[in-house]
Each structure stands twice: as structure tokens, then as C-alpha cells.
Amino acid sequence: MGVLCGFRETSDPGEETPAAEALWCNRCVPIRMGGLCIDRVEECAEGLDVCVHVTITYPHPSSNSYFKRCSRRFVADNMRRSQHLTVHICETDFCN
């Protein structure tokens, strides 16, 4: 399967479908906090079961103080406990 503009192509009708398909997430991780990044897509590896969009609110909010990527649910839930992060967790392709 290929990826085009954030959407996966559908399988051929005759193609065998795998038991479980991997989750696909948007990925944007700046090299430094507040730096620019380019949105990409990534197929989540086994065990990475959610997509996250995390906004860093400390030390100073900035429009570029965020990242998007695949994550483990328990890691995402732990990030939510921080008063300095706003964490959006979702479980469908490209939902972050």
C-alpha cells in the first residue's frame, strides 16, 4: 500500500488482507523546541497503538511548541499528567 496526501491507497480486491493493519499517524517532531518541522506520515510499529499531538505550554507557549507521532497508550496517558503539556490522543489513521 502507498501513501498519498495523508491517505492510504486501498488494497486490490484479490489481495489478501493482513490480520491487523498498522495505525498510521502524522509525524512532526522539531529538531529543537519551537523550531519548524514538516508534517510527514508514519506507520506505527508494533506496540505503538495511538497517535498523539502534544502541545508544550511551558516555559512559553509558541505556535511551534508541539510534536505529533505514534505512541504507546500508557506513555501518552502519562504525558497527560504533566501540567506543562496538552495531549490529544486518538486511535484512527491520521487523526492527530
UniProtKB/TrEMBL annotation:
<dbReference type="InterPro" id="IPR016054">
    <property type="entry name" value="LY6_UPA_recep-like"/>
</dbReference>
<dbReference type="Pfam" id="PF00021">
    <property type="entry name" value="UPAR_LY6"/>
</dbReference>
<protein>
    <recommendedName>
        <fullName>UPAR/Ly6 domain-containing protein</fullName>
    </recommendedName>
</protein>
<feature type="domain" description="UPAR/Ly6">
    <location>
        <begin position="22"/>
        <end position="96"/>
    </location>
</feature>
<dbReference type="InterPro" id="IPR045860">
    <property type="entry name" value="Snake_toxin-like_sf"/>
</dbReference>
